């Protein structure tokens, strides 16, 4: 405004120039604004939808997170999944992550003091709780990261020139890391990949084979391996021992291993679930020896049920510069905030709360594990096995791995089925299935890893034991009836027994399709069609058995898989029903194929006869009658009387027949009677409420004697009826018509006798009423 007033006071020429300048500037500004809007519109096309605009509100974002956590997962799978029990102590751990983000914005000096206090307090508390004096702590997210940092620390310690010369030092004297064969899968390979070492630097130490637990490291063999490596110019660097193996939960002989490590100047690192028992008042001597090791890894999150807390590696080392070089310590204050969630949770639980959770898990083990062994492991691993004697299977049951193994053969398929069913029936128990090197598939119960997370209680273990007692007889019956089922199938014509060792059910059977010179592709399709229809028919029966196509991956094609069975199963009836149903489906399929072929041939024959009849009609009518105008005039003067000749196709006989008899009798003939549809004649007479394939056991019969007797009387009365009035299942329609005629004649004779035997005079009123009605 001041600029326009100033222009009015000056020369008019300058005012005009100023006016033009304002218009030009306005035009430039409009063009620039238009270009910016176009640029924004063009750039928004590449921006994802949630980021467009001015942002979203907090409610929408949290709703999206909730949908991602629960909505899609429930749509994809209908199975119940284990949800972690997040209590108040878990809320403290989650609060620690939020506080860590807030504390990180403090000024540097205040942040340094606070993080130092948190780190020192947490380290001191953990060392006192788990009896590890004068130790330092490293907090990490990945449970293998602590061992990786320890390996770097040992390399820096044993190779003084490693910081300067690097891998050249390792080349002259190759380091060796010893790991038990019962350790975590892929642990050695992960260490070599992160350290840049060849796989030859990892030595797997076998477990005991003759004496002691088969999940403990063989100390004598380890000593021999170390001596061989020393003689070959290698440097024994580190030994990874287990205080609770990942599979069976057994503890190595840590005392002897520590002596061996001191002899060869090796570093001893211990990890495992049994380290949690160090916080208890009484600790077994095998686990107590872990307090003398050089480092140990603690997974407090699963032991105490704390979500998103870091894993802790406690270690002893005197040189802080080497610890800093290995990455075990950091000069960044923000890195020290990893201990904040654990710092808050430990204070909230207190010593009593920590001990109570670990003691509760140990008590759950004692409930389910009634046999005390020298290993005192808080992990129970059991399997389904069968004892063999000279007469075959002697006993089928479950036992822990600490039991003897004489004459006991484990069944991996049934153990897998048992573990999956127990996990589904009692999800709060935390049982899972593990694969062990010698025992195969086993069921594992490790409450130290699951009870605090899932909130396992004593009643859950009682329910687990009840389910185990309920499932064992079913598994035993299935295993004992397998041989009988195989023999019945092999004796039955038309059935093929398929041996599938990975199937935990009764067995696998296939209906063999009898091909009549068909090619392989057509035979395969027909086989698939028949067995699919057979599976559908079997599932429609009222029985307790489960019929399926087998597992999704690795199963046989075109087969019927039969699931678990009980001891009252009638195997012969089951096999007979499968064979009869398969034959019925095959006969119906062949009947349909034959009918299709007959209809096709009949249509071709009808076309030929129609063509022949047209030619004959042309010969009879003459050529003149085929001319349009002349033929009409000729038909008017001399009409041509053509006989109606038709054809009918008899589906029963499969032939063409003339329709002359139909026009003569003014009615369509019925022809021959079609054959009855093939049905199964092996249906067993069952009592009311009794399901299919059940053997009639007197001891387990649920029906009263009165109902059984009355049912038998009804059957006897049906058998005593006259044969003419009770057509059997094998009588056809003609026999049934004769029976009906005989029944009508007998009824008429009975009515006549009643009329003649009536001595009273007829009622005249009734006779007159009948006459009037007529």
Number of helices: 26
Strand element count: 18
Mass-distribution shape:
extended
Main sheet specs: 7 strands, mixed
Give a brief outline of the structure.
With 774 residues, this protein is of the alpha+beta class. The protein contains 26 helices and 18 strands. GO terms for molecular function: carboxy-lyase activity; pyridoxal phosphate binding.
Topology:
Blueprint: H1 2-9, H2 12-44, H3 58-76, H4 88-103, H5 108-129, E1 136-140, H6 145-158, H7 162-165, H8 167-172, E2 175-180, H9 187-195, E3 202-205, H10 219-231, E4 235-242, H11 254-263, E5 267-271, H12 285-288, E6 295-298, H13 300-304, E7 311-315, H14 320-326, H15 333-336, H16 340-368, E8 380-389, E9 392-400, E10 408-410, H17 412-425, E11 432-436, E12 440-445, H18 447-454, H19 458-491, E13 495-498, E14 507-511, H20 520-540, E15 547-548, E16 560-562, H21 571-621, H22 628-637, E17 647-650, E18 655-658, H23 660-665, H24 705-719, H25 733-757, H26 764-773
Helix pairs in contact: 1-2, 4-16, 5-16, 6-14, 16-18, 17-19, 20-21
Coiled coil: 17-44, 596-623
Biased composition (Basic and acidic residues): 711-720, 735-744, 753-774
Biased composition (Polar residues): 699-710
